[in-house]
């Protein structure tokens, strides 16, 4: 499948050419993110925006990511009660909004299990968009990210369409194309709730000139939705499909719901990767599946996964690098404490993984990712 899609330079350059020619609503000329000649460099994906510095999935987080040089920004997508796609990392709202402090919504506190994880609190599909818009974003891990937490209460939850319009305007303003890497979250859960994501998602892509032309990589931890999107969107040369995987014997949610036996561990075998290449363009494992941690917390020897993915004809784009000591391998930590921000260590860790020949990677701090790529 990947053979019919363009290389990174061609992917962005083609999107740039068509966007500049057809997006009459955008001011200025859209230029490629990497206009210089030479080999393709790894893509820097802004994980939930610049989520190390601003509350995740807010326009502020996306603006900071774009200003810091991200090639793509990531809106994770879930559905409101009235069927609107909004940018949240999961259906559970308590960790990233101020809903727990809103007495008008106290009666909506429930206990629910989604994709095997049980939470007690408030869930996006119990709220209309109008209700969700009254909430304000907060930082998920304020002890580690006090700068981001200082923005608590300032920003709204945003819709997918608002994200697209914002990125299109930013692209026109700064003169380079910014890609989108949306993730369809909990597809099986939302389908069972009568709020299927896929048709509304495809309709939104088709309705916006920017997403008809600019680079878009669509991610999921599930399998059936990517297979559907491959069938429906196969002729769209500005799109790639990304299969996310976890580590070990865990099953994708759609596989588990259907009583299947396929696990992420099996998907990461050479045979599993060849099967992924039948419907997806990108294989995206967690970083520690590529270079695991030893017992002392330092990086061990790389696994064969990087070479296996390339042998299957797949791009390799890993998740997620974070700039605090608690998330960094012991090789690169400094003496600042587990919650301390460690820019040099994060850059060094990313560079170690880049030696594997990554095509792209997710980072909570795109500015550091850009420095890592620059060498």
Automatic annotation (TrEMBL):
GO (cellular component) term, any one: periplasmic space
Q: Enumerate the InterPro entries for this protein.
A: GP_PDE_dom, PLC-like_Pdiesterase_TIM-brl, TAT_signal
May I ask which residue range the UniProt record assigns to the signal sequence?
1-23
User: Does S-adenosyl-L-methionine show up as a keyword for this record?
Assistant: no
Keywords assigned: Glycerol metabolism, Hydrolase, Signal
- What is the uppermost EC class here? hydrolase
The UniProt entry, under PROSITE patterns, shows: GP_PDE, TAT
Its GO biological process terms? glycerol metabolic process; lipid metabolic process
Tell me its EC number(s), please: 3.1.4.46
GO molecular function per UniProt: glycerophosphodiester phosphodiesterase activity
Q: Which PANTHER family match?
A: GLYCEROPHOSPHODIESTER PHOSPHODIESTERASE GDPD5-RELATED, GLYCEROPHOSPHORYL DIESTER PHOSPHODIESTERASE
Which family is this sequence assigned to?
A: Belongs to the glycerophosphoryl diester phosphodiesterase family.
Designated name of the protein: glycerophosphodiester phosphodiesterase
Q: Which gene encodes it?
A: glpQ
